[in-house]
Amino acid sequence: MSLYKRKDSPFWWVKISRQGHCPLQESTGTANKRQAREYHDRRRAEVWEQHRLGVKPRRKWEEAVLRYLEESADKPGIVTFRFHLRWMQPHLEGMDLTEIDRDVVERIIQTGLREGVTNTTVNRRVQVLRAILRRAAHEWEWLDKVPRFRMLNEPQGRVRFLTRQEAMRLLTELPEHLRAMARFSLATGLRQGNVKRLRWAQVDRERRRAWILAEEAKARRAISVPLNAEAMQVIEEQIGRHPEFVFTFQGEPVTQISTKAWRSAVKRAGIENFRWHDLRHTWASWHAQNGTPMNVLQELGGWRTSEMVQRYAHLSMEHLERYAEQARLSELAIGYDLATLEKETAPKGRLTH
Asked: What's the domain count of the chain?
């Protein structure tokens, strides 16, 4: 039996031969020799099953997380992804992937609800877990199947937008660098990250265009952004401030937008329940109110599906007006002159005795 100690570790280690592969060497995680022997025997049996019977090797949750993060380092939203992973780690630490079943997922759901977080946040955590397990099953072949996941009901998509008067109050209260970025957002509808990372190489001032690269777009599809007069004015005001990035603060690229300065400005402007992302909602809502067709708005906003843009459809009524006109009384009273119809239905005079 290959059981040994290393100078750099208090635990016993095992060394197990594998036909056609390098020997397996790993820590037993225990300083107790009897427990280490049991660990050795169990792992040797697993290695035999993998080689002779084709049984998949047992993989730990931590292995899957590390590999997923390595492969998804440039994925939009990876910061939020890591945040949810940090919360889940104590609940999944040391578990084999095959041990993560419906009961485990349900415990994670119930723990989140007891903590008082929203259904939406709980669902995002479950989606992170599901994404890792699906990749482990379908791409890495570490799992034979993925358990079914229960998702909680979520409220309808939130659409919060400003009136033009509210927008002017907010812009007045913002510090200069945030005011420029907010004006640009209201003019283009670009997401926060795209505005922060916008480079001069992505702007064509002559053609009044900007481009968002596919790897920087949420839908993973390049976006061509037409720059209206307001957006162009903002761009012109930033010339010479930085050689690479369009928007800066004290000579450096902007890294944070939803700061104390932003929150204080929103409060001073007398605006409640408003986030930076709601500038994008405001841009889309103004377009809908001004009659921009939904398919055009979808392309301008870089949404992958029409469902995402339909949340603004109720703000545009122009496409319904011509149909509403078809139900006028003058059209329904077929074969009658409207004046004659009114005369025929007028009350009769009183009889006199």
From this structure: 3
